[in-house]
Amino acid sequence: MNLKFLNALTYQTPSAGGFVSTTKASDTTQVNAVINAGGAFVVNDGAHNLNLTFKEGSLLKAALLSNAELANLTANPTLKKTINASGKFRGHNLANVEDSYAFFKTAKETVSGSNLALSLQKGKSMEEVASTSAEKSFARLVEANPSSAIYSSILGATHSVAAAYFGAFSNDLDFKAQK
After folding, report:
1. CB-based contacts of 3: which residues, under 8 Å, 6+ apart?
2. In terms of Cα–Cα distance, which of 102, 92, 94 is closest to 70?
3. How far from 44 is each of 48, 84, 156, CA to CA, in Å?
4. Nearest CA among 134, 109, 135, 136 for reference residue 121
5. C-alpha count within 13 angstroms, C-beta hemisphere, residue 7
6. Is 159 left (phi over 0), alpha (psi -120 to 50) or beta?
7. Contact at 8 Å (CB) between 94 and 56?
8. CA angle 85-89-94, nearest 5°?
9. SS (H, E, C) 21-44
10. Whose CA is closest to 45, among 63, 25, 58, 30?
């Protein structure tokens, strides 16, 4: 289970005239949580008023970034995007960092009793993530076309989603080559 905090949330409520959008901004309410083994805390930039206890085997993940931010990190491989949260963090040294994305490396930058920061940086290429020769061919084609819709779709993929994309599309390429 992932624990994710947002700075604001818009939700729909029914009314006599149909559904109405309501936005609830974060407030000074403190969030108290224990992140157990196998559980994950998703670090959202700017999250605050957190009182978290991490147990051994718990996970830290970076929140989802926009495609524009991911494309910028890809174009500038030495650039890092830092995501910060503040509050009280106990047992932070027991939490492991897990890469949220297939093509980006997540690292602990700062973890203390009051600040938690993860960074994202360009990691493996699409070809390095692909498994078979057909998948690697497809990955090279996608990576060579960063303005394509498929590139945008795959760029922020998790490891399992990237594997599914490569598997499905490389099978299509194999099928077309056999015709």
Report:
1. 33, 35, 39, 40, 41, 42
2. 102
3. 9, 7, 16
4. 109
5. 8
6. alpha
7. yes
8. 110
9. EEEEECCCCCEEEEECCCCEEEEC
10. 63
Compute the distance between CA of residue 61 and CA of residue 59 in angstroms, rounded to an integer.
7
Q: Do residues 40 and 1 make contact, with C-beta atoms less than 8 angstroms apart?
A: yes
Please report, rounded to a whole number, the percentage of residues in the chain having pLDDT higher than 90. Answer: 59
In whole angstroms, what is the distance from residue 172 CA to residue 169 CA? 5
Going by the DSSP 8-state scheme, the letter that residue 68 receives in this structure is H
Token pair belonging to 68: 């524009």
Asked whether the CA dihedral 93, 96, 101, 102 is positive or negative, the reply is positive
Please give the helix or strand (H or E) that residue 104 lies within, else none.
Answer: strand 104-111
10-19, 28-37, 71-80: segment of lowest average pLDDT: 10-19
pTM above 0.85, yes or no: no
